[in-house]
Amino acid sequence: MLVTVAIIGSARGLKGEVKLNVRTDSPERRLVVGAMYETDPAELGPVTISSVRTYKGSTFVTFAEYADRSGAEALRDTKLVIETDEDDIEDDAWYPHELIGLEALDPEGYELGEVTGLEPGPAHDYLLVREPDGIITRVPFVKAIVTEVDIDDNCVIIDAPVGLFSDADLEID
């Protein structure tokens, strides 16, 4: 299965340096000089990292195959992907494709909607849930709110605070 390690962002400078939107939990291990990655779309790769630097929390790289700005600009929004073995997965970690399509339920089993995506955030990710009326709700993907993910039962249990979902009953004192 292919897993996204990073998404290539904007080009910086004239020598082909690009900013990465890092999607791996271990960039210090994966994003190193000499690492080769397949790309999505595939026709732009494979690429080999020739330099890596971090600046103000962002990661910047150059690729041996794209040594100038115009080449680097052509890579924008390209995904760096690797083949992974499913045995390496943590117990409480899921890939977006595993979550999309799951039914979102409250703790009593009432339908809240359907998971349509996973949005990375700076502190934590967000589950995107399409409510029955079509509204998309961003649910913080933290244990206190998303209390259970049951891939086998095709659902996630969301203990949402009042007001998170549009049809939530608001109690006014």
TrEMBL record:
Coiled coil: none annotated. Keywords: Chaperone, Cytoplasm, Ribosome biogenesis, rRNA processing. Gene3D superfamilies: PRC-barrel domain, RimM. It holds the Pfam family RimM. The keyword Cell wall biogenesis/degradation does not apply. Residues 97-164 form the Ribosome maturation factor RimM PRC barrel domain. GO terms for biological process: ribosomal small subunit biogenesis; rRNA processing. The keyword Cytoplasm applies. It is found in: Cytoplasm. Its main location: cytoplasm. InterPro entries: PRC_barrel-like_sf, PRC_RimM, RimM, RimM_N, RimM_N_sf, Transl_B-barrel_sf. GO terms for cellular component: cytoplasm; ribosome. GO terms for molecular function: ribosome binding. Binds ribosomal protein uS19. Belongs to the RimM family. The PRC barrel domain binds ribosomal protein uS19. HAMAP family: Ribosome_mat_RimM. This is Ribosome maturation factor RimM. It comes from Arcanobacterium buesumense. The lineage of its organism: Bacteria, Bacillati, Actinomycetota, Actinomycetes, Actinomycetales. The gene is rimM.
